[in-house]
Amino acid sequence: MKIVIIGGVAGGASAAARARRLGESAEIVVLEKGDYPSFANCGLPYYVGGEIEKREKLLVAPIDMLRQRHRLDVRVRSEAIKIDRTVKKVTVRDLNAGTEYDESYDKLVIATGASPFRPPIPGIQSDKVVALRDLNDADRMRELATSGAKRAVIVGAGFIGIEVAENLARRGLQVTLVELADQILPPWDREMVLPLEKHLKQEGVELKLGSSAKEFDSTGKSLLVTLNDGSKVEADFGVVCIGVRPDSKLAADAGIECGPRGGILVSSNMQTNDPDIYAVGDVVQTICSTTGDPTQIPLAGPANRQGRIASDHIFGRESTYRGTQGTAVVGVFGKTAAMTGLSEKVLRSKNITYEKIYLHPTDHAGYFPGAQGMFFKLLFAPDSGKILGAQAVGTSGVDKRIDVIAMAMQAHLSVFDLEEAELCYAPQYGHAKDPVNMAGFIASGVVRGDQPIIHADQLAGRSDLMLIDVRTTGEFSQGAIPGAKNIPVELLREHLAEIPDGQKVAAYCAVGQRGYLATRILLQNGIDAVNVSGGYRRWAIEFT
Cα–Cα distance between 393 and 60 in angstroms, integer? Predict the structure, then answer.
C-alpha cells in the first residue's frame, strides 16, 4: 500500500507515524510545503519571547528521525498543487528546483492545516506587519523584536494574540493589543476574563477593546495603525492574529466536499466523500461533542488524534473521532485561563436551556502556604445536571480542574457525579473537598432545589428583592452591593422578623458559602430566598 500525506506538523506527522507502526511494509510519502515536517507551532510565541532559547527545541520530530526511525519518505519544500482523483495522483511542485512531478497514491491524507486570516486592510502586506504560523514567521518576529524595536501593536486578542503580547512585553516592548470584541479571549465568557484584562494592564499592556485596524501605514520610519474610531497607534511593527482559515483550496479544487467556512467535510473515521482520501487537523470541519453541531476549532490535541484515527481506518481498524470539545488553556503573565465545552454565550446563541454557578476556591488547602485563588464557572442542564461546559481563571491548579471536568463530559457524567469524584488530596496539592467536588455540590444543590440561586447580573433594578449581605460588619464596610442590608449569618435567625411577610430575599456573602447557609435558614423559615451565586466577589469582578 502506498500512502501519501500532504502536510506535516501535528495531524500529518501523527498520521504518518501511526501508519508506519501499523504497516511496516507500506510506502509512506510525506509532502511538506515548508522547511520542517514537524515542529511545535504552539511554542512559537515563546521562542519569539526568548523563554524557549534554542530554535531546534521546536523541532518535535526532526526530518532525519522521521526518515531513519520510521523510514518515511519525507519531502520538504514540496507543495502539492493538484489532486487528480480519477487516476489517484498528486501533482507536486519542488520549490527548490522549480520543477513539477506526479506522485501516485493508494490512500491520501490531507493535512494542510489553516493559515492566518489576513483581511484586505490597506497596508497589511507591509514587511512591518507579520503573522505567526511557522518557524520562518517566528524568526522574522524575533528579529524584529530584538533589533531595536520599542513598540508593537497586535491585532487580535485570541490565544495567539495574548501569547505574543506576553512574549513581546517580556522582551521589553511596549505592547498595544487591539481586539474587535469587547473582551480579550472571545471564546470565554466576558466576566471570566475581566481579571485577566486587569492583569494585562498591570503588566503594561495597553488594551484597545471594541476596536479594529482600518489601515497600516508604513511609509515613515514607524508603523502607524489607524483604528476604526479614527485614532492612531504608532509602533515599530505589527502582528495580525485575527484567526485562521482552513487551507482547503487544494481539496475543494479536486471535488472534495467542504463546509460553509471552508473546512473539509469528513466522517467519524476522518474519511472525505472520496473513500480513498482522508483529511485531518485544522483543515477539517468536525462536530461539537456536546451538541453534535458542525464546528471548526483549531487545536493541536484533536489534530493529533485525528491523524491516528485516519491511519487506523486506512489499515482496517474501526477507530472513530467522537467530536471536538474545545478544551483549551492559555497563560497570561503567570495567570492561567482554561475552558472546556460550551460557553454561556454559545449556549444562548443555540437556545439551549442552561444554568450556571460560580465559586472561588483556592488551588490547595488554605492553611498550607502558597494557596492561590481561582474563579470557576460551571454550566449545566438545570433539569438533568448534564455538564455543558466549564471555565476557570487563576494561577495554579486551573488546568487540572478543567481537565477533570473535560474528562467527566467525555464520559457523559453529570454534576451529581462530580460530587462523588475521588481525586488526589494532600494539603499542598488540593482539598479534601476539591474545587471539582465543590462545583458538583453547588450545582447539584441547584438541580435538587436545595439552594435556589440568582446571578449578579440579574440584581440591577430588582425592586421586588430584599438584598441581605450576610458577611460580617467589617466585611460589609469594605464594600457591598448597593441597596443591601447587612445581617451577619450568625445573627440572621434573630432578625427574621425584620423581613416583611411575602418578601423575596436574595442573600449573599463573599463567595457563596455563607449565602447558601443563609438561604437554607430562610427557606426553612418559610421565606422565599435565593443565593447570589459567587457572592460579592463575583459581583465585584464585573461591576466595580
Answer: 29
Phi, psi of 31 (to 5 degrees): -105, 115
Q: Residue 209's pLDDT band (boundaries 50, 70, 90)?
A: very high
User: For 315-428, where are the alpha helices, taking DSSP H only?
Assistant: 344-349, 398-410, 415-420
Can you read off the three cell numbers belonging to residue 48? 519569539
Which region, left, alpha or beta, applies to residue 98 given φ > 0 means left and ψ of -120 to 50 means alpha?
left
- In this structure, the number of other CB atoms found within 10 A of the CB of residue 493 comes to 12
Gap between the Cα atoms of 99 and 512, Å rounded? 68
Global confidence as pTM: 0.94
CA within 13 Å, CB half, 408: 31
Q: Is 443 exposed, middle or buried (0-12, 13-18, 19+ CB in 10 A)?
A: buried
Residue 295 confidence class, pLDDT cut points 50, 70, 90? very high
> What distances in angstroms separate CA 33 from CA 20, 288, 299, 324, 360, one per listed residue?
21, 30, 21, 27, 47
In whole angstroms, what is the distance from residue 288 CA to residue 285 CA?
10
Phi, psi of 282 (to 5 degrees): -65, -10
* Torsion angle, alpha carbons of 229, 231, 237, 238, to 10: -10
Report, in angstroms and rounded to the nearest whole number, the Rg of the chain calculated over CA atoms. 27
User: Which one from 42, 258, 288, 509 is the annotated catalytic residue?
Assistant: 42
Nearest CA to 342 out of 379, 297, 295 is that of: 379
Nearest CA to 164 among 53, 50, 67, 246?
50
- Closest alpha carbon to 341 in 392, 288, 303: 288
Q: Which residue has the cell 462545583?
A: 439
Q: Which residue is listed with cell 501511526? A: 18
Name 294's bridge partners: 287
448: how many CB neighbours lie within 10 A of its CB? 11
- Report how far residue 243's alpha carbon sits from residue 116's, in angstroms, rounded to the nearest whole number: 6
Say if residues 213 and 233 touch (Cβ distance below 8 Å): no
b/e sequence 57-73, b meaning 16+ C-beta within 10 Å: ebbbbbbeebeeebebb
Q: Is 258 among the catalytic positions?
A: no
pLDDT in tens, 419-459: 999 999 999 999 999 999 999 999 999 999 999 999 999 99
C-alpha cell at 522: 430562610
Classify 133 as helix, strand or coil: coil
